Amino acid sequence: MINKTLTTKALTGILALGLAGTTMAEIRIGSTLSETGPASFLGDPEAKTLRMLVDEVNAAGGINGEQIDLIMYDDAGDPNRARTFATRLIEDDEVVAIIGGTTTGTTLAIMPMVDEAEIPFISMAGAIQIIDPVQPFTFKTPHTDRMACARIFDDMQARGITTIGMISGTGGFGSSMRDQCLDIVGDYGIEVVADERYGGQDADMTPQLTNIRGKDGIQAILNPGFGQGPAIVTRNYSQLGIDLPLYQSHGVASQGFIDLAGPEAAEGVRLPGTALLVGDQLDDNDPQKSVVLDYSAAYEAEYGMPVTTFGGYAHDAFRLLVDAIERAGSTESQDIRDAIEATDGLVGTTGIYTMSPEDHLGLDISAFRMLEIRDGGWMLAD
């Protein structure tokens, strides 16, 4: 007769084996995002996107049959907290990869941690110094600020604009993009004759805009920045009745910017953006169309709100990581890193990614669409 009563020792052993089996069947992915704080308009849709996509993948059977365990922290845009959470993800949570770095500042704080630990890291911040020079374990999904400058200057050149004023934020993104724009503007035959700055807490940019308006011959104004600053610039611009083209950065490519600035004030603003904001305007043969429409539909159904460019960066980061793990057939961090670097033709919401040892972004300027705000929404610019 078989004794159906298990001893405590035997039961403990079975439970231990069961728990070990469960642990082995999980792929731990870490994330530290600015879900709250001054950059929450970026980090919140990123966090929502990651949670939604993890649920989708797990419901479909996981990655190569293994479920994803997403471990997420909110750094509130603080680089010190981001550094602390990255260390926790690596040392305590033992993740195989990290998606995060909502801002340039938090990304730069995380990068030394992942390089030392040799853990692949996919950032969603814009500054070029994240991937130039290339760091072995750091990748990113948004276009660089230098690429945004180039796309804007291409558009200005096509419109015959040769003399501009700039008004830039002093934060990490605004300062970096300003520097990149100043570095390449001469290549397009464009002269910057006014160069104003504003701080992150400034609530009125009328004095700077008045200074710019007072310069002779200015044909357009460019505002490198993100957050509330560009919305204030846009409102003040309208209030002053400045009748010149206004260009913003890709850092404000969301409906939230239009709502904050006011649709009337934002009318006619141009900026380089992603296909995600104009998915229904894309040609049917555009390879990004189905990707952006599927993501948009899923996000809006899940959360009852429109997608943003920034959530799209998280979508692409997650898809890059899942694709790499599937192709690697491994959850070893080095294997995942190698597979991300070998990404070839992965279609995302931001563009089509093809990476290499020399390129940890995998996009070129053609992935940018020039957008214009019309009637309170985004349109492909003429």
Q: State the helix count.
A: 13
The unreliable regions are: 1-24
SSE run: HEHEHEHEEHEHEHEHEHHEHHHEEEE
Within CATH, the superfamily of the largest domain carries the name: Response regulator
Number of domains: 2
Query: What form results from the Cα inertia axes?
Result: globular
Main structural class: alpha/beta
Main sheet characteristics: 5 strands, parallel
Enter the CATH topology name of the largest domain.
Rossmann fold
For the record, the CATH class of the largest domain is Alpha Beta
Roughly what percent helix?
40-55%
The strand count comes to 14
* Largest sheet, spatial ordering of strands: 2-1-3-4-5
Rounded average pLDDT: 92
The CATH architecture of the largest domain is: 3-Layer(aba) Sandwich
Radius of gyration, in angstroms, nearest whole number: 23 Å
Ends: how far apart? 84 Å
Portion of residues in beta strands equals 15-25%
Plain-language structure description:
The protein is an alpha/beta fold and 382 residues long. It folds into two domains: 20-144 and 296-364, Rossmann fold (3-Layer(aba) Sandwich); 146-279 and 368-380, 3-Layer(aba) Sandwich (Rossmann fold). The protein contains 13 helices and 14 strands. The strands form four sheets. The protein has a five-stranded parallel beta sheet, sandwiched between helices. Strand 13 and strand 14 (377-380) form a beta hairpin. Mean pLDDT is 92; it is low at 1-24.
